[in-house]
Design a protein that fits this description.
Radius of gyration: 26 Å
Shape: elongated
Oligomer: single chain
Number of helices: 9
Order of helices and strands: HHHHEHEEHHHH
Structural class: mainly alpha
Number of domains: 2
Strand content: 5-15%
Helix content: 55-70%
Largest sheet: 3 strands, mixed
Strand order of the largest sheet: 1-3-2
Distance between the termini: 99 Å
Bound molecules: zinc ion
Number of strands: 3
Length: about 240
């Protein structure tokens, strides 16, 4: 074999190798995509079933022992902070002071909720879409970020401003759920509730998919339920 021919063979082999590699990359990518698509299809199927089970169900929030204790701590905190009632305190505050108060509550409440300190932002919607997308607020686990919709803090209706205090408790409850299921913290919740939260993280239902199922799914039922439970206990205590 002449050296020229040998070089040609090397060249051809290289091409063949390159094509083979590219082909196997392509095959890998396709199989990854198929797997991803299968997982998404499975989740969509599960979610459909979950929405079906929740819709029309009588399922209610039942506070477990750790939440009963937490609610009492939150109520005594509110009583101390608002000695003459929430509304009378809010009446005295300027809009900027309302925002400072929210920052203060987040900082103090995260200790009461026994969660790591969260990043906190007040968001100001600039479009109707943003206003609805923010809701009253939300908690983003990937950034450990708690956001409040600032539009409600600037409103003349003090009950909307007051609502944002309960929104903080709602969102911190989400932070606590994640800390519980990721086993960062041992709060003493039952295996049953932890499993329901873990399942719900995978098949999370957005309000636009079903408003009823959104409120009744395990994570939201717990956060809305806890928020209402605190509101009722506080109202009874004053
Ligand atoms: Zn929520």
């Amino acid at each position: 074999m002449s050296s020229l021919k040998a070089d040609n063979m090397n060249f051809i082999q290289k091409i063949v190798e390159t094509v083979k590699n590219a082909f196997s990359d392509l095959v890998n990518e396709i199989s990854c995509r198929i797997k991803e698509w299968q997982i998404r299809r499975e989740i969509a199927k599960e979610k459909k079933g979950y929405i079906g089970r929740l819709t029309g169900s009588e399922i209610q929030y039942e506070p477990e022992e750790p939440d009963k204790e937490l609610a009492l701590r939150v109520v005594s905190y509110l009583r101390e902070l608002f000695q003459d009632g929430i509304e009378s305190k809010l009446q005295e505050l300027s809009i900027d002071e309302r925002k400072d108060l929210m920052c203060q509550i987040v900082e103090e409440a995260e200790k009461i909720f026994e969660v790591d300190s969260v990043n906190f932002e007040i968001l100001y919607p600039t479009t109707v879409e943003e206003f609805y997308a923010y809701g009253c607020g939300f908690y983003d686990r990937s950034k450990n970020l708690l956001c409040l919709n600032g539009a409600y803090l600037e409103d003349d209706h003090l009950e909307l401003v007051e609502e944002q205090i309960y929104t903080i408790f709602h969102e911190l409850k989400h932070a606590r759920q994640y800390a519980a299921i990721e086993q960062e913290k041992e709060y003493g919740y039952s295996e049953e509730i932890l499993d329901a939260w873990k399942y719900n993280v995978v098949v999370y239902i957005r309000p636009d998919e079903s408003d009823e199922a959104y409120r009744k799914q395990a994570l939201e039922r717990d956060a809305f339920g806890f928020e209402n439970y605190v509101r009722e206990l506080y109202t009874k205590s004053i």
